[in-house]
Structure formats: structure tokens, C-alpha cells
Specification:
Structural class: mainly alpha
Number of domains: 2
Largest sheet: none
Shape: flat
Radius of gyration: 16 Å
Helix content: 55-70%
Number of helices: 6
Number of strands: 0
Length: about 120
């Protein structure tokens, strides 16, 4: 059953990537990258759940402690560095223990360059 779900996930991601990219090789690479990211995210969630004694954590290590904490210049630098490295919003959020919405808001406030949205032309 899990194998069927993985095949379906890969098929859906490839289908979407083919709509976004003219080059089939780029589409395949993007779909593979997204599948790996989703799988890794699921593993991280399972690890976080085990660490929390079976309780779900919302967005990553230290989320409860960080989610309403003020932004510092050091955190801003970390967001800038990860953004410029091409990391996805959800990866940055996980790393900093923040929500994706807070990362998007910070990216806008810091006036970081916009990115092409996946699936948009």
C-alpha cells in the first residue's frame, strides 16, 4: 500500500512539473526533488513525534519556544542566507522553528528577491 502511495505521489508531481517546465528533464528533476523533500519531511515529522513522546509538534524543533519570539538580526541573516541558497520556505521554517507564513512575511519585510512559483509560468 505504501508503495502504491509513493508511485501515485511521484506521478502527480511529475504531471504538475511537466505543466511548469518545457524541458522534460527539468520537469523530472523538479518532481524527483519534491518527492524526496516530501519523504524527508514525513521522516522528520515522525522523528519529532517520537522525541515529543507521541505528541505532534507543529513546525519543528523548538517551535513552541520560537513561534512568538521577536525576530533578531541573527535570525534575519539566517533567513537571508537560506533564501539565497535556494532553500524552500518550509525548510527555512522547519530550521528556525517558525511557521511558513512567518517566513513568507519576513522575506517580504527583508525585501528579498521574489522567486518563480512552482507550477506558474
Amino acid at each position: 500500500m505504501a508503495l502504491d502511495l509513493m508511485q501515485e505521489l511521484r506521478r502527480l508531481l511529475l504531471e504538475r512539473a511537466l505543466k511548469a517546465y518545457d524541458d522534460p528533464d527539468k520537469a523530472l528533476a523538479a518532481a524527483s526533488q519534491m518527492a524526496e523533500f516530501i519523504i524527508a519531511g514525513g521522516e522528520r515529522i515522525a522523528q519529532a513525534k517520537r522525541r515529543a513522546g507521541g505528541q505532534w509538534q507543529t513546525w519543528g524543533p523548538g517551535h513552541a519556544a520560537c513561534s512568538h519570539a521577536p525576530w533578531t538580526p541573527k535570525l534575519d541573516d539566517e533567513v537571508r542566507r537560506m533564501w539565497e541558497d535556494g532553500r524552500r520556505v518550509i525548510e527555512i521554517a522547519w530550521h528556525l522553528g517558525r511557521t511558513p507564513a512567518s517566513i513568507n512575511a519576513r522575506v517580504q519585510l527583508l525585501k528579498l528577491p521574489k522567486r518563480r512559483r512552482w507550477g506558474k509560468s
